[in-house]
Input
Amino acid sequence: MSFSISEAAASRVAEIISAEPGAHALRVEVLAGGCSGLQYKFDITDAAAGEDVVITRGGATVLVDPVSLDYLEGAVLDFSDDLMGAHFTVKNPQATSSCGCGTSFSVD
Output
């Protein structure tokens, strides 16, 4: 498995989890939809599902289901806080195109 979390993303996930009562992890999913065919979904969750892959770094826990993990192979979860706002991004080498919002993508 080569989906990873940048230091910036790990720091922000750890902050969010510590501030949210009952929060355990950030769930990253790839779902059908969006303007390019697939989209990323981020949710705070209190528990892992049975088949979730658990990724930890710097006090942060990220959960990914096996189906989503296929689309995230080689990708990096990052966090950016700049003039455009603060947001998580996925740097995904499998994405062949994406929309302007950065949460929708397609693969061949």
